[in-house]
Structures are given as structure tokens and as C-alpha cells.
Automatic annotation (TrEMBL):
Reported function: The B regulatory subunit might modulate substrate selectivity and catalytic activity, and also might direct the localization of the catalytic enzyme to a particular subcellular compartment.
Signal sequence coordinates: none
Protein known as: Serine/threonine protein phosphatase 2A regulatory subunit
Transmembrane segments: none
GO BP annotations listed: signal transduction
Keywords: Cytoplasm
Species name: Hibiscus trionum
Length: 523
């Protein structure tokens, strides 16, 4: 009988299956619509028609009707869990082909609601094929309505969930959500340049059911009737790890739900917060150094932004290592534009928490500074401004020499936006004050770039901005400015003299070669 039930569960590679242990704890995700406004049954109903007709994504399921393959992976994942008689009866009903709706919670007395809850969970173990909209229409609708009833029950229940209910909720969620995504591009280390905005968003055709399962899991996690001390046995390390795997989904709606749920788990199950951070680290490492392809980096960074915001001071060494080994190297991949806003927020949070990290962050940015990608360079300059705004004088002085060598190169960039963005740094009062205080070191470094811009830059706007910056230095210290100007002119004259000598040598060589050629012709 138990084998019949496991036969209904989705196939999953046994390699990634583990046994349950414990879960996690911490905070709130900014700007998360599914977190701030729970999707009630009405909005879940409204999502059915649009999602069912959407195109099949790489994460769509390939099963035909209810799953009929036995998964040893799920046996390993949930080994030691006892199957309740009610769920066994539901599995028997599915095996016999009788997929019928169960009574509503309103139609049974309170004493029977707990049993009905388990039976409805058992009914939802079956996963249907959404690649063909014409298949199993009646059964799909029965399951959808059952899931909506379960969401409503979890939201309104007034008694604590017992261990059997927790076990069955997590097993039903696992049966519906946990799957492996096809990855045709993940083994290609060289990611071709692409713009995600030009691509049509991928929509999982199974979303009419997936959305409600996610909503059920979210409400179960946040419910005051879910005791974290008991629930951590089922929402454990393997469960969280499989949730993290789902962040690679092509469907942004799914990633938004995952972002909210994972953050709620982090907040409620404090004992496994280090595990979640470590697991996210591992995703970043693989993305940076192996694949350079992952769909959920922005969402994971958004969660981390909120987590970093809650770090206690002084910062632990573990957190500083995370900054150096994971966050800063995330500037390296070609597709950094996909998640740069969230990454920049995390980096800035670290500097605001501990201003002594500013030198480390700035040198990290310089290490990964783009050479030929102008749009990426504009992003780096924007992030640099945010970091400098939180930088104190001592940290600024440690890195200002290599920093302004790079800024000087940006000032002379032929790309209009790069040159403009570099010149806009002087519009920030805090940065301008830092530069003015250390002008004796900075001005000699960037003065040649300023002079070349005023004389030769092709864009009038850049020339005008450069003159403004030039005037700031002139007003601050005319003696230093005159000294730099004299040094620049001297260097220019030496350069001109060297160039003339070089041209003279080449002319002599040409004359010698020509005379030898004429002599050979005469002979």
C-alpha cells in the first residue's frame, strides 16, 4: 500500500535526496509583493486562465496524468516517516482511478476537520501534465479547488498543527514543487551576451497549481499555529536545499514566491540560519567560477540584503569573508547587469555597517573593473559613488591612488556616459570634500586627464563638465593647480620632443633604405 502512494510522487534523482533534519530563522524582504499582500483564494482563482495558456518553460513537467513511477529518491528523502491511514486511503482511491472531490471543511464537524485536512493533502499528491491543456481537465480543477480549501484552512486554523499534519504538508509540497530543471546552457561556461529584457518571460504551464501550493507553504510557515520546534524536523536542511534549487526556475513568479518563503523560513527557524547562508554561498561560488548562468541570483541577493541589514556589530569574520569571497567576485560575470542593483545594495550595506571595509570593497571593484564593456563601467561608477558616500577619510586615503588612476581613465573615455558618470562624482558633496581634502595627491594624478578632456574630447557636454571640475581645483588651491599645469606642459613638451626625435630617426632609416635600393638598381 505504501509503495502505491510513493508511486504517485514525482520522480526525482536519488543523488539529491536526503533525510530531513532541521530548519532556519530571520527578517523581511524589501519590495516583495507576495509577502506584503497574501494572495487570497480570489486572486488565486483569477490566475488560472492566464497561466494555463502560457508557453511551456524549461521547468514544465513531462508527466501524463498522475505520476505512476516509483521514486526511490523520495523514499530516501522521507525515510522513517510513517504514512497516515487517511493518506493511505487517499492513495488507494487514486490507484483505483477514482479521483473525486472530498467534502468541504464547512460540511464536517470540527472534530473531523483534522482528518479531512490530511485526506485533502493526500489527494493533492497527484501531479498532472500541463503541457497538454486538454488532459485531465476535471481532475485538475478538483485538485485546484482542494488546494484553495487547504490554503483557507491553514490561514484560519486556530489549533496547533501536530507532527502528522506537518509531515503531510511538507511531503505534499515536496511532491508538487521539487523537480529538476532542464539545463541546456548550464554546462556552457562561456555565456553568450544577452539581454533578458528582449526575451519573452518563461511561464510554467503548471502555475495554476504551483501558485496555490506555494501560497499554502507560505501560510503554513508564517502561521502562528506552526511550532518551529516541531516543524524544523520537516522543514529541514534537505527541504531548504531543494527550495534553493528552485531559484533557478525560468518563471519569475515562482522565484518571487521562493524569495518570500525562504526569507520567512530564515526568520522563523533561527537554528539553521548559518546553513542557509552557506548554501547560498555555494550557489554563488558555482555561478561565479563555473557556470555564469543562474536565474535566481537577483532574488537571492535581495534576501541577503535584508539579512545583512540585520547583522549585529561588530561584524563576524564569517560575514567579512562572505563579502570578500562571494559578493565582490559577483562583479565578474558578464551578466552582472541582471542583478547589479541588488548586489550594489548588499555591498553598500556592508560599508554602512563597518566603514573600515570601504578600502576592501573599492579595491575589489578595481580588481574586476571592466575594460571593454562601457555599460558595465557605468554601473561600476554608480556603485562606486554609493560606496564612497559611506567612506571615511582614513579608508579613502588608503585606496585613493589606484582609485583615481582608474577614474582618470574613465574621464578620458570616448564613451559619453562613462566620461559623464565619472565627472558626476564631483556633484556629490561628501565625495567632493574627500577629494578636496586630499587634492595634493589626487590632482597630480587626474590633471592630465582633465587637460586632455578640455582640449580634445569630442563631446561638448563632457568638455563643459571637465571645466567645472577644473575650476573646483583652481578655486581650492591655485598654487597646486599652477604647479600641476606647469608640470603637465613640461611633460607635454618632452613628449613632443621625443616624438620629433622618433620621427627623425625613422626618416633617416627610410633615407638609408632608399639610397641602398637605388645603389642596388645601378649595379
Amino acid at each position: 500500500m505504501i509503495k502505491q502512494i510513493f508511486g504517485k510522487l514525482p520522480r526525482k534523482p536519488s543523488k539529491s535526496s536526503h533525510s530531513h533534519n532541521d530548519s532556519n530563522g530571520g527578517g523581511g524582504v524589501h519590495g516583495n509583493s507576495s509577502l506584503n499582500s497574501s494572495l487570497g483564494p480570489n486572486s488565486l482563482n483569477n490566475s488560472k486562465s492566464g497561466s494555463a495558456s502560457s508557453k511551456s518553460s524549461s521547468s514544465s513537467r513531462s508527466n501524463n496524468g498522475p505520476h505512476n513511477s516509483h521514486s526511490s529518491g523520495w523514499n530516501k528523502l522521507y525515510h522513517g516517516m510513517k504514512t497516515t491511514p487517511l493518506v493511505t486511503q487517499a492513495g488507494h482511491a487514486l490507484t483505483s482511478g477514482a479521483y473525486e472531490a472530498l467534502p468541504s471543511f464547512r460540511d464536517v464537524p470540527n472534530s473531523e476537520k483534522q482528518g479531512l485536512f490530511l485526506r485533502k493533502l493526500g489527494l493533492c499528491y497527484v501531479v498532472f501534465d500541463f503541457s497538454d491543456p486538454s488532459k485531465n481537465l476535471r481532475e485538475k480543477e478538483i485538485k485546484r479547488q482542494t488546494l484553495l480549501e487547504l490554503v483557507d484552512y491553514v490561514s484560519s486554523v486556530s489549533t496547533k498543527f501536530n507532527e502528522v499534519a506537518m509531515q503531510e504538508v511538507t511531503r505534499m509540497v515536496a511532491a508538487n514543487l521539487f523537480r529538476t530543471f532542464p539545463s541546456p546552457n548550464h554546462d556552457n561556461k562561456i555565456l553568450e551576451a544577452y539581454d533578458a529584457e528582449d526575451e519573452e518571460p518563461a511561464m510554467d504551464p503548471a502555475w495554476p497549481h504551483l501558485q496555490i501550493v506555494y501560497e499554502l507553504l507560505l501560510r503554513f510557515v508564517v502561521s502562528p499555529e506552526t511550532d518551529s520546534k516541531l516543524a524544523k524536523r520537516y522543514i529541514d536542511h534537505p527541504f531548504v536545499l531543494k527550495l534553493l534549487d528552485l531559484f533557478d526556475s525560468d518563471d519569475q513568479r515562482e522565484r518571487e514566491y521562493l524569495k518570500t518563503i525562504l526569507h520567512r523560513i530564515y526568520g522563523k527557524f533561527m537554528v539553521h540560519r548559518p546553513y542557509i547562508r552557506k548554501a547560498i554561498n555555494n550557489i554563488f561560488y558555482r555561478f561565479i567560477f563555473e557556470t555564469e548562468k543562474h536565474n535566481g541570483i537577483a532574488e537571492l541577493l535581495e534576501i541577503l540584503g535584508s539579512i545583512i541589514n540585520g547583522f549585529a556589530l561588530p561584524l563576524k569574520e564569517e560575514h567579512k569573508l562572505f563579502l570578500v569571497r562571494a559578493l565582490i567576485p559577483l562583479h565578474k560575470p558578464k551578466c552582472v547587469s541582471m542583478y547589479h542593483q541588488q548586489l550594489s545594495y548588499c555591498i553598500t550595506q556592508f560599508v554602512e555597517k563597518d566603514f573600515k571595509l570601504a578600502d576592501t570593497v573599492i579595491r575589489g571593484l578595481l580588481k574586476y573593473w571592466p575594460v571593454t564593456n562601457s555599460s558595465k563601467e557605468v554601473m561600476f561608477l554608480g556603485e562606486l559613488e554609493e560606496v564612497l558616500e559611506a567612506t571615511q577619510t582614513a579608508e579613502f586615503q588608503r585606496c585613493m591612488v589606484p582609485l583615481f588612476r582608474q577614474i582618470g581613465r574613465c574621464l578620458n573615455s570616448l564613451h559619453l556616459q562613462v566620461a559623464e558618470r565619472a565627472l558626476f562624482l564631483w556633484n556629490n558633496d561628501h565625495i567632493r570634500n574627500l577629494i578636496t581634502q586630499n587634492r595634493t595627491v589626487i590632482l597630480p594624478i587626474i590633471f592630465p586627464a582633465l587637460e586632455r578632456n578640455t582640449r580634445h574630447h569630442w563631446n561638448p557636454a563632457v568638455q563643459s563638465l571637465t571645466l567645472n571640475v577644473r575650476k573646483i581645483f583652481l578655486d581650492a588651491d591655485q598654487a597646486l593647480f599652477d604647479e600641476c599645469l606647469a608640470r603637465f606642459q613640461e611633460h607635454e613638451s618632452k613628449e613632443k620632443e621625443t616624438q620629433e626625435k622618433r620621427e627623425l630617426i625613422w626618416k633617416r632609416l627610410e633615407d638609408v633604405a632608399a639610397s641602398k635600393s637605388v645603389g642596388n638598381e645601378v649595379q
